[in-house]
Design the sequence.
C-alpha cells in the first residue's frame, strides 16, 4: 500500500505516475497504488512499459511504439461498424484507416482474415503508399458504381473497390483478398466497377508505379436471372489506365500481378491502357460471356486526341482462354497509340493482334481462332506450328523441327533444315540458278498441288518428263490418263506363307500373325492347321476375315475351343503394286488382296498367264470368275484343261 503521509498531486489523471524517493506510484482512477507492488491489478499505459528489441545493441523502446509499428483495421472502427454484418457500411472505417496510414508516411494496413467486410458506399482512393494485407478476408462490393467524380463515363464505371490514383508513387501492394461484386441495380447486366483499378489522370503529379497485386480472387454473386444477367458482373477485374499521364513519369509503370483468379467480367479480366512494364504471372481469367476477353491491352487515346503506349506487357504461365484469350492493339490508330512488344507464354486461347500491336512474341497453346492485322509483324510458337510474320534475316544455318510459316521475307545466309512443314504464303519459290533441284535426295513419294484444279509444268511448247513417262499436250486435245490401280506378278507354284497362332472360343477363331498381315476386312485367307496346344484342333480351310489389328483378325467357325499354331497359305509375289498378298486357296485358285481398296467393284481386271503346255489339245482358258471382283480383292483361276499353278501369273487392275 502507498505511504499515506505522502502529499500526492491533486486531480491526477488515470495512469499518472508520481515518484517519492525510490518508489513510483500510479493513479488507478480511485487510489494511488505502488507501481511495482501490483502491476496486474491496475491499468498500465503501454508507454510506461519498456520493449527490448531482439537486435543486440538496439535502443530500448516502449510497447506503445512497438504496437504503432503496425496498422490494423480494427484500430480505426468508426461509429457502430462491426465486421461480418452486411448492413454496416465499412467505408467510413476504411477511410479513417487508410488516412492514418498515409499520414504516417505509408505502411501496411492489416485486415482480419476470418472477417467479411461490406462496402455499402464507394470507398476513397488509396494514396500515400498504403499497402493492404487481406490475410484471406472477403470484401463485398454492394454499391453501384455510377462513374461520377474523378472518373467519368465508361471509365468511371470501371473504378475499383481498391482504387490507386496517380499520386500513389510508392512501393505498394494489395494481396490476399477475395473481392466479390454484390452490387446490382436490378437492370444493369453489362457490368459494374472493377475489383482493383490503377489510374493516372492528367492532373496527377505522378503516374503510379511499382505496384504488386497478388493472391486476389475476384468474382461476383448471382442474381438468379437468365444469362447473361445471372451474375452481378464486373466491368473488369483489374483496370489499368495511364493514358492521360503523358509527361514524365509517363503512364502507369511497373504493375506486377501474380497468382490471381479473375472471374465474371463483362469486358475483360484485365483491361490495360498506357501500362508500361505490366507483368502478369500465374493468373487465370474466366469470363464466359460473349464479347468479353481475358486480356485487352491498348495504348489508349484521351484528351487532345494524342495517343499513349503500353510498353512490353508480359504474361507468363497464365490461362485466359475462356471465350476470348488476348486482344492487343485493336483500338485507336492515332499517333503514339500502340502496344509495344507484348510477350505471352502460356495458354493463349483465341488471339487478336490489331494494327496498333507492334512485334508481339507469343509462345504457348493457341486453342482457338487467330485474327491478325496484315500489317502486324509477329512471332507465334505453338504445339501446332510456328509463324513468323515479317522479314527474317538469318546469317547461319537453321534447324526447324516444327512448322515454319513466313509471310514476309526470309533471308538465310547458311543452309536451312526444316524437319516440319514450310508454308510460303507469298506464292512463289524462286531461284537465280540455271539448274535447280528440289526434293532429289531421299523423297520416294512426291505430292504437288493436291488442291489444284489446273497444274502447269514447264513452258507451253516444251516437254515435261515425269519419271519415265513423256507427255506432249500439243495435239489440240487433252485426254485423261488412267493409271494402274493395282498389279502383281506372282509364282503360283511357290508359297510365301505367314506363320501364326490361333485361339478358338465358341464360334470365333482369333488369329495372331508373326508379322503384319496387310489384310483388309472381308478378304479371304486360307488357314492351315499346324499343331494344337490345347482343346480341339483347328479346321483347315478358306475363311472371310474381320481385321482387328495389324497382326490380328477373326473369323467364324463352328463351335469349339482350342489353341495352337497355323499358317496362312500364300503364293510367292515376285513384284507388285497395291497388292499386299495373294491367298493360295488351292491348285490354280488365288485371291489377289489389295493393300488399299478400290473405290468400287467396277474396275477392269486383266489376267495374263503362259499358254498351255500340251499344245494341240483342247484347253480351258484361265479366267476371273463372275462376281469375284470385290473392292478389296479379286479372285483368279489359272487353267490348263484343269486347274494348274503357273509360275508367272500377272494381274492388272485399272479404274
Sequence:
Amino acid at each position: 500500500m502507498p505511504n499515506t503521509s505522502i502529499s500526492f498531486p491533486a486531480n491526477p489523471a488515470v495512469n499518472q505516475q508520481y515518484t517519492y524517493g525510490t518508489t513510483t506510484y500510479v493513479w488507478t482512477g480511485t487510489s494511488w497504488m505502488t507501481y511495482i507492488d501490483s502491476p496486474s491489478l491496475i491499468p498500465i499505459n503501454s508507454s510506461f512499459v519498456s520493449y527490448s528489441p531482439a537486435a543486440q545493441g538496439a535502443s530500448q523502446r516502449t510497447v506503445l511504439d512497438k504496437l504503432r509499428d503496425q496498422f490494423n483495421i480494427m484500430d480505426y472502427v468508426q461509429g457502430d461498424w462491426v465486421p461480418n454484418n452486411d448492413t454496416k457500411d465499412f467505408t467510413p472505417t476504411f477511410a479513417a484507416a487508410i488516412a492514418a496510414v498515409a499520414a504516417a508516411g505509408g505502411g501496411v494496413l492489416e485486415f482480419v482474415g476470418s472477417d467479411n467486410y461490406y462496402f455499402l458506399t464507394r470507398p476513397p482512393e488509396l494514396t500515400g503508399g498504403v499497402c493492404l494485407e487481406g490475410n484471406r478476408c472477403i470484401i463485398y462490393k454492394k454499391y453501384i458504381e455510377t462513374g461520377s467524380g474523378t472518373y467519368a463515363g465508361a471509365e468511371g464505371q470501371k473504378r475499383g473497390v481498391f482504387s490507386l490514383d496517380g499520386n500513389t508513387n510508392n512501393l505498394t501492394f494489395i494481396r490476399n483478398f477475395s473481392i466479390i461484386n454484390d452490387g446490382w441495380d436490378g437492370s444493369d447486366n453489362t457490368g459494374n466497377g472493377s475489383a482493383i483499378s490503377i489510374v493516372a489522370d492528367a492532373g496527377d503529379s505522378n503516374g503510379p508505379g511499382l505496384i504488386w497485386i497478388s493472391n486476389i480472387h475476384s468474382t461476383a454473386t448471382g442474381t438468379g436471372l437468365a444469362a447473361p444477367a445471372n451474375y452481378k458482373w464486373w466491368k473488369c477485374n483489374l483496370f489499368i489506365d495511364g493514358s492521360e499521364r503523358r509527361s514524365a513519369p509517363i503512364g502507369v509503370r511497373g504493375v506486377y500481378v501474380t497468382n490471381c483468379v479473375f472471374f465474371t467480367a463483362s469486358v475483360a479480366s484485365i483491361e490495360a491502357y498506357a501500362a508500361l512494364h505490366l507483368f502478369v504471372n500465374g493468373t487465370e481469367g474466366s469470363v464466359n460471356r460473349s464479347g468479353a476477353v481475358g486480356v485487352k491491352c491498348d495504348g489508349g487515346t484521351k484528351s487532345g486526341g494524342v495517343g499513349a503506349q503500353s510498353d512490353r506487357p508480359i504474361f507468363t504461365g497464365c490461362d485466359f482462354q475462356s471465350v476470348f484469350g488476348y486482344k492487343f492493339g485493336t483500338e485507336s490508330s492515332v499517333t503514339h497509340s500502340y502496344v509495344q512488344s507484348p510477350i505471352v507464354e502460356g495458354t493463349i486461347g483465341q488471339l487478336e493482334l490489331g494494327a496498333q500491336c507492334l512485334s508481339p512474341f507469343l509462345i504457348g497453346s493457341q486453342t482457338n481462332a487467330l485474327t491478325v492485322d496484315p500489317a502486324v509483324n509477329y512471332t507465334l510458337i505453338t504445339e501446332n506450328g510456328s509463324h513468323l510474320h515479317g522479314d527474317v534475316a538469318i546469317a547461319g544455318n537453321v534447324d526447324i523441327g516444327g512448322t515454319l510459316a513466313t509471310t514476309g521475307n526470309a533471308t538465310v545466309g547458311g543452309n536451312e533444315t526444316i524437319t516440319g512443314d514450310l508454308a510460303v504464303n507469298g506464292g512463289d519459290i524462286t531461284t537465280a540458278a540455271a539448274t535447280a533441284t528440289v526434293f532429289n535426295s531421299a523423297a520416294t513419294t512426291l505430292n504437288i498441288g493436291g488442291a489444284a484444279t489446273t497444274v502447269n509444268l514447264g513452258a507451253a511448247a516444251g516437254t515435261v518428263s515425269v519419271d519415265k513417262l513423256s507427255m506432249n499436250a500439243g495435239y489440240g486435245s487433252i485426254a485423261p490418263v488412267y493409271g494402274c490401280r493395282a498389279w502383281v506378278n506372282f509364282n503360283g507354284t511357290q508359297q510365301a506363307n505367314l506363320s501364326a497362332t490361333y485361339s478358338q472360343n465358341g464360334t470365333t477363331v482369333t488369329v495372331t500373325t508373326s508379322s503384319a498381315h496387310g489384310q483388309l476386312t472381308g478378304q479371304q485367307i486360307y488357314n492351315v492347321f499346324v499343331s494344337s496346344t490345347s482343346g480341339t484342333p483347328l479346321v483347315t480351310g478358306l475363311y472371310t476375315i474381320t481385321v482387328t489389328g495389324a497382326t490380328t483378325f477373326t473369323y467364324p467357325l463352328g463351335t469349339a475351343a482350342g489353341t495352337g499354331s497355323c499358317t496362312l497359305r500364300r503364293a510367292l509375289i515376285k513384284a507388285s503394286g497395291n497388292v499386299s498378298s495373294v491367298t493360295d486357296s488351292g491348285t490354280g485358285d488365288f485371291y489377289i488382296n489389295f493393300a488399299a481398296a478400290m473405290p468400287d467393284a467396277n474396275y477392269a481386271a486383266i489376267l495374263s498367264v503362259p499358254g498351255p503346255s500340251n499344245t494341240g489339245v483342247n484347253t480351258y482358258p484361265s479366267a476371273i470368275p463372275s462376281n469375284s471382283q470385290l473392292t478389296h480383292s479379286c479372285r483368279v483361276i489359272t487353267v490348263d484343261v484343269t486347274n494348274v499353278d503357273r509360275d508367272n501369273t500377272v494381274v492388272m487392275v485399272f479404274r
Summary: The chain is about 5% helix and 45% strand.
